[in-house]
Amino acid sequence: MRDPDVLIVGAGPAGLAAAAELTRRGVGDILVIDRDDAAGGLPRFCAHPGFGIGYLAVPRSGPGFAASLLHALEGSGVRLLCGTTMVSLDAGPTVTVTGPELGHRVLRPKAVILATGIREANRGNRLVPGERPAVGVLTTGLLQQTVARKVPFPAGMKELVVVGTEHVSFSAIWTARHAGLRVRAMVDERAAVASFAPAGWMARAFGIDIRLSSRVAAIRARDNRVAAVEIETGGRRETLACDGVVFTAGWIPEVAAIATGPIGIDRTTGGVATDENGRTDLAGVFAAGNMRHPLKASGSCARQGRSVAATVASALSSR
Ligand SMILES: Cc1cc2nc3c(=O)[nH]c(=O)nc-3n(C[C@H](O)[C@H](O)[C@H](O)COP(=O)(O)OP(=O)(O)OC[C@H]3O[C@@H](n4cnc5c(N)ncnc54)[C@H](O)[C@@H]3O)c2cc1C
Q1: pTM for this structure?
Q2: Number of domains the chain contains
Q3: Which residue has the higher pLDDT, 79 or 49?
Q4: Are residue 239 and residue 258 in the same domain, yes or no?
Q5: β-pairing, 236-241 with 85-90?
Q6: Residue 21 maps to a domain
Q7: Ligand 1, closest atom to CA 13?
Q8: Is 1 a member of any domain?
Q9: Residue 102's closest CA among 11, 35, 41?
Q10: Helices (DSSP H) in the chain: which residue ranges?
């Protein structure tokens, strides 16, 4: 396979919108890679409405937004390779990728747009003590992928505790309910619900116990499965029986493949450092979407992908 003019790493809203804008501006040779088994990024797994605001005329569900971004690329000649991971990035730019179609390969595009998104802080990132069961410790992403990929939950799993009260925490409740699981409680160290107040009122109306100014002090297990969480509020501990605990939010920009390379990382956001046009400090390398600043909504990430693509197109035409 020949080297592309532009390599886009990540086929979420930012990467796909960037690809569409590049083709609209006449850039002909674009390769989009994604390590996942299909394109669409995080929205693929979020079946609720509210995606694409500010980018689409009418917002859609997560999978609907992903489908419309892909639809815009039909017939454009953009090459899309899934199951293909960027493993490192160096000056040039040179990008080492690995995947079933390319094998282990070094690509030398004229420009690279990084759009690798974010991931959530899991139990390990949050240093939550206690037992370490194999079953029942999740993140929102894992919960949503389990549901979207129709993987059955372990028999007997019924009640969850959600850690966090951000928008995404309520998205986790929505997914859990659709999977037939009940959320028993939400726990947050903050003194108020981090999402919109009505989200908290609704959750309480559904019988969810919201514990604020509280933290998960330990996870307890039985037969290698989550059996309870210990909640600490103002120095007092209480045990809540549950079958699973879902850690939500705590966003970490997905910079694993570049963190030890020559590219600068913004110490405040943990994402790639860029100027306002998405230029990184490595010539020919740009960045868009949540990997720059967690967590923006999908429509904002797509709009940013589009505007970074405009910068890349004009940089290529002036070469
Ligand atoms: C549970 C949840 C609910 C949400 N609800 C809403 C909502 O209601 N409305 C809304 O607007 N937004 C919502 N969002 C936010 C929205 O999903 C994000 O803003 C959006 O997906 C960010 O787009 P992105 O392209 O930056 O990154 P992503 O969508 O995260 O895409 C990044 C892609 O990069 C790929 N990738 C990562 N590393 C590599 C690598 N090394 N090599 C190759 N590929 C790589 C990943 O596989 C992924 O497909 C929600 C997010 C979550 C998690």
Answers
A1: 0.91
A2: 2
A3: 79
A4: no
A5: unpaired
A6: yes
A7: 25
A8: no
A9: 35
A10: 13-24, 62-71, 123-126, 140-148, 167-178, 197-205, 298-317
CATH for 299: 3.50.50.60
**Per-residue pLDDT, 269:** 86
Kindly state whether residue 59 falls inside one of the protein's structural domains.
yes
Q: Are residues 83 and 195 in the same domain?
A: no
Rounded Cα distance, 272 and 171, in Å: 27
Q: Which pLDDT value is given to residue 28?
A: 85
- Pair 105, 72 in one domain: yes
Residue 278 lies in a domain: yes
Helices (H) and strands (E) in the chain, counts: 7, 18
**How many angstroms separate the alpha carbon of residue 117 from the centre of ligand 1?**
5
Beta strand 137-139 pairing with 159-163: unpaired
Q: Is 79 helix (H, G, I), strand (E, B) or coil?
A: strand
CB 55 within 8 A of CB 43: no
**166 Cβ closer than 6 Å to some ligand 1 atom:** no
Distance 307 CA to ligand 1 centre (A): 18
Point out the ligand 1 atom lying closest to the alpha carbon of residue 33.
Answer: 43
Q: Which of 230, 249, 268 is the last residue of a domain?
A: 249
- The beta-strand segments (E) located in 35-91 are 79-82, 85-90
Q: Which domain holds residue 234?
A: 122-249
Closest residue (by CA) to atom 49 of ligand 1? 41
Q: Is residue 70 pLDDT above 80, yes or no?
A: yes
